[in-house]
Amino acid sequence: MGDPKKKGGSKGLTLLGLLLLVVLAAGVAGFLNPELPVVGPLVRTFFKVGAEKLDKSGVYTVKVTSVVLSPEEFSEGENLDIQVTVESVNADGKTRLLWESKQFGARKAKVGKDPLTANWLDRPFDMEWRAGDKLVVKVWDRAGLGSTELCVWEISSGEAFPLKGAHTFEKVKGKTPRPGGTNQIVFEASRKGDLPPAQ
User: Fold this and answer.
1) Among residues 175, 165, 179, which one has the least CA distance to residue 66?
2) Is the model's pLDDT at 58 over the cut of 50?
């Protein structure tokens, strides 16, 4: 004679397995045919809620809280005017300027004398962002008659808004920075609301 407890346990596992198979089959059926009564709407709602949690598209308020450059990347006594631009790039590769810091005045610093830092805490800007949008952040030196591109951050963003927290630049003036220095930009952002309806 077998152990009744073992028989009961095996029956329970079998029933659990069958229940899981039924739920899985119902989920697949609902996914493949959303018009199925009861199952279809449940599965559709499940995927919709999941997508809403992942997709953070919307209007964002953004601040550039800090730009820091390492003095080792520049010549002693060099004068800088640190500025930032934020651009979007469409599917055709055309860029559109979203924000530019130079309209708010110079951020001058002398290498070897002043910290090479800048911020625009009092100059937040709003921008529309859709999941997958490509953005380009650039740090410039606007001192003198011309402009020199110092750092570039090209962002092929995913489902989360990318202009948050600190980003360290991989290159300064087209070259790999010297070890030990800090070359980064820090953003602060908050979601303001949903995107306006498409026209």
Assistant:
1) 165
2) yes
